[in-house]
From TrEMBL:
It comes from the Bacteria. Residues 212-377 form the NodB homology domain. This is NodB homology domain-containing protein. Keywords: Signal. PANTHER family: POLY-BETA-1,6-N-ACETYL-D-GLUCOSAMINE N-DEACETYLASE (PTHR34216:SF3), PTHR34216. It is found in: Secreted. Coiled coil: none annotated. InterPro entries: GBS_Bsp-like (IPR013688), Glyco_hydro/deAcase_b/a-brl (IPR011330), NODB_dom (IPR002509), Polysacch_Deacetylase (IPR051398). Pfam families: GBS_Bsp-like, Polysacc_deac_1. Its main location: secreted. It comes from Neobacillus rhizosphaerae. Residues 1-25 form the signal peptide. The lineage of its organism: Bacteria, Bacillati, Bacillota, Bacilli, Bacillales. The keyword Signal applies.
Length: 377
């Protein structure tokens, strides 16, 4: 067995805005706070017991998590329903995004409290996201055995950027909706250099499994969005895999030189960079209409016929919606974005994925302002 070096961590707690959305409420409500020890791993032989990935793991207990209020950064972890008699439990914990090499070990010998341990995200620099948890029991003969494993998620804030035109402003339209190609490139290079992970709605289940998740979205399906497409193509390399979402107005496809064509859309999709989603059939003000089938479903079907891929997200035109619009939208879409400002975070609220906030990027947005808008909360 390897030699263990016990280090007591003392640090100042900073609230980082994490949110615990899912937690097993099966643990004792009146759990005493237990002091814990961080065990430093040695790089050579004597590593922690390993589980053969080719065998089926037979749990000998259940890891349980206490429920917490929104924006909490701490959680009580216990191991219940144990079938082995153990004198202590070592909890091996690491962030999914950082890999098992980021693992830290925390020990509890509090048998009367089901080996309770208070985990705090400050142990991982206040980072949120999904954490892997494994419970190793110390047997009477001194051996360690894996009893249970699970995962717990502290929700990350996700900036969903909102762009419209990527072009020089030439006097037509609203200037604030135009971001120059040069500024857009600087902004995307910032995301690349700072280690952001660009996602689309098809990969929403990854938002807590990657570092710095962010979505880049474009409204209206304008031809000049090809400027953004070319820039993202140029920035792509082994380290940076760009991804973006284009909300097209289905009835405007192939409608003129200012709009994306069917061939443009196919090229964008086939690149693996762009996901094409809906902005309705005619950019209708949804609270004022009754023909929801045409605006919501027919637009979805038309885009799917072009791309050959499911359309699962929509941007409300003008950012307008009401309860009726949300009820109709959920018949056809899993996600819907508004123009309400701010980063998005899942809170477990009803229909929240149909009411997603976005971060508006405008003509006047400086790179310093951009950095502040996308900064992790």
């Amino acid at each position: 067995m390897k030699k263990l070096i016990n280090l007591v961590l003392i640090s100042t707690f900073l609230l980082s805005g994490c949110s615990l959305l899912e937690a097993n409420a099966k643990t004792n409500k009146d759990v005493t706070t237990i002091k814990h020890v961080v065990v430093a791993k040695e790089p050579d032989q004597g590593e922690s017991p390993e589980v053969n990935d080719n065998t089926i793991f037979d749990p000998k207990g259940t890891i349980s998590f206490s429920p917490l209020t929104y924006q909490s950064t701490k959680i009580t972890i216990t191991t219940i329903d144990r079938t082995e008699n153990v004198s202590a439990i070592n909890y091996h914990i690491w962030r999914t995004a950082d890999g098992q090499e980021s693992m830290k070990i925390f020990m509890s010998n509090q048998k009367e409290n089901n080996y309770s341990f208070m985990f705090d995200t400050k142990e991982f620099l206040d980072k949120c996201g999904e954490f892997q948890v494994e419970a190793y029991g110390k047997l009477e003969d001194g051996r360690e055995e894996l009893l249970a494993k699970s995962a717990v998620t502290f929700q990350q804030h996700v900036p969903i950027l909102m762009y419209h035109a990527i072009d020089e402003y030439k006097g037509e339209g609203l200037k604030d909706l135009f971001v120059t190609p040069a500024n857009f490139e600087v902004q995307m290079r910032y995301l690349k250099d700072k280690g952001y992970t660009l996602l689309t709605f098809e990969r929403w289940d990854e938002v807590n499994k990657v570092n710095k998740p962010i979505l880049v979205t474009f409204d209206d399906g304008m031809k000049n969005n090809l400027n953004a497409f070319r820039i993202l193509q140029e920035l792509k390399d082994e380290r940076f895999q760009p991804a973006a979402t284009e909300y097209v107005i289905a009835g405007y496809i192939d409608s003129g030189s200012y709009r994306l064509s069917t061939e443009d859309i196919k090229e964008m999709v086939n690149s693996g960079i762009f996901s094409i989603q809906s902005h309705t059939m005619s950019h209708a003000d949804l609270p004022k209409i009754t023909n929801y089938e045409e605006e919501l479903n027919a637009s979805k079907e038309k885009i799917e016929q072009i791309t050959g891929k499911p359309v699962i997200a929509i941007a409300y035109p003008f950012g307008h919606f009401n309860d009726k619009v949300v009820e109709e939208t959920k018949k056809y879409y899993k996600f819907a974005t508004t123009t309400k400002p701010g980063q998005f975070i899942e809170k477990g609220e009803s229909d929240e994925l149909l009411l997603m906030h976005r971060v508006r990027i405008s003509n006047s947005t400086t790179i310093n302002q951009f950095a502040a808008l996308v900064e992790s909360r």
